[in-house]
Amino acid sequence: MKTKLSKDDAINKKLSACTFSNRRFSLIITALLALLILSTVLCIILGPVHVEPRFTWRILLHQILGDRSSLEVDWDKSQFIIVWLIRYPRVLLGLVVGAGLAVVGTGLQALTRNQLADPHLLGISSGASVTAVLSILFGVFSAFGQYGLSLSAFIGALGTMVLVYFIAQENGRVITTRLVLGGVALSMTLGGVTNLIVTMGGSEAGIRSALQWMLGSLSSASWEQLPIPAIVMLLGTAALFITYRSLNGILMGDDVAVSMGINVVRYRKFLLITTSVITGVLVAVSGAIGFIGLMVPHVSRMIVGADNRKVIPVSMLIGAIFTIWMDLLARTVAAPSEFPIGVLTSIVGGPFFIWMLRKKKRSAAGRG
C-alpha cells in the first residue's frame, strides 16, 4: 500500500509540475465564470434584431416569479418571443453543447493518448449524420414528431459507438490503436454514405436542411430540447471529474495506470461509453460541430497544466464561452441569413490545428 501511495504522489507531482497553484487556479475559474456570465448576457442582447439589455433580466424574472415579480410588463410580444423563446434557449443550448464537446475531447485525448483526438474521431458524429439525414429527407422516425430528428441522430451515434467498440476489442480488451483506426475508417465510410443519401433524394429544401444539420447549427434550439442534453452533459462531466485520477493514469500509459491500482480495461470501457453517450446526445440536437473537442482541451492544458482535475472544469467553461460566441457570429455576420456554426468553428480550428503542429515541431527541435 505504501508503494502505491508513493507512486500516486509521484504521478500527481509530475502532472502538476507545470500547473498553477490552487489559489491561481481558483482565480482562473472565477475569471472564466465572470466571462461566461458576461458572454451569456451579451449573446442574448446582441443579434440581427436589437434587444434592450433590461429586457433580458426583466423577462427572465417575470418568467421565473410570475406575478410575484411585481415587474411592469413593458415589452411587446415580439420582444418576448425573441428573448425568451429564441435567444435564451439557443444560448443555453450553446453553453451545454460547447461544454460537453470540450469535456468529451478531454476524455478522448486521454483514452487514445492522442492529442489530436476529438469527439468526431470515433465516427460517432458521422453515424449520427447518416440517420439524421435519413430522417430529414425521407421522414424516418417522423412518427416521433419534433423529437424524430434528435432520436434518429442519437440512435445513429450509439450504433456507431457499439460498432467501433467491437472493432477495437481483442480478447476482451479495448485496443487503443484499433479504436482510433476503426473510428477513422468508419467516419470516412459513413461520411460517404451520408453524401450518397443527400445526392440521391429529397426536395431541394430537404437537402438544404440536411446540409445545414451536417455542418452544425443551434437554430432549432427550444426549451423542450434543453433538459436532456443538459442533464447528460452534467452527469457525464461529473463522472469524468470524479474519476480524474484514473484519467490521469491512463493518459500516462497503461503501466503507470496499473501501478496506481486502476483497472485499465474496465475504465477504458467506461470512458468510451460515457464520451459516446454525451457526444450522441449533443450531436442529436446541434448537428456535427467540429474542432471544439480538439482545440479547447489544448488551450486548457496551456493554462492550467496536465492535471485533469483542473483541465476538465476549465475546458467546460472555455468550451461553453467559445461556442456561444461562434454561434453569435453565425447568426449576425450575414444577417438575416445564417452561417452553420460548424463552418465557423472549422475556420478557426484549422489554423489552430496547424499552429499546434508547428508548436510541437519547434518544441521537439528545442529538446533535440
From TrEMBL:
The Swiss-Prot or TrEMBL record describes its family as follows: Belongs to the binding-protein-dependent transport system permease family. FecCD subfamily.
Regions that span the bilayer? 88-108, 120-141, 147-167, 179-199, 230-251, 271-299, 339-357
Compartment(s): Cell membrane
Q: Does the keyword Ion transport apply?
A: no
In Swiss-Prot or TrEMBL terms, this protein is called ABC-type Fe3+-siderophore transport system, permease component
Give GO terms: molecular function aspect only.
Answer: transmembrane transporter activity
Keyword vocabulary terms for this entry = Cell membrane, Membrane, Transmembrane, Transmembrane helix, Transport
Can you tell which superkingdom this protein's organism belongs to?
Bacteria
Q: How does it sit in the membrane?
A: Multi-pass membrane protein
One Pfam family per UniProt: FecCD
Gene Ontology annotations for the cellular component aspect, listed alphabetically: plasma membrane
Q: Name one GO biological process term.
A: siderophore-iron import into cell
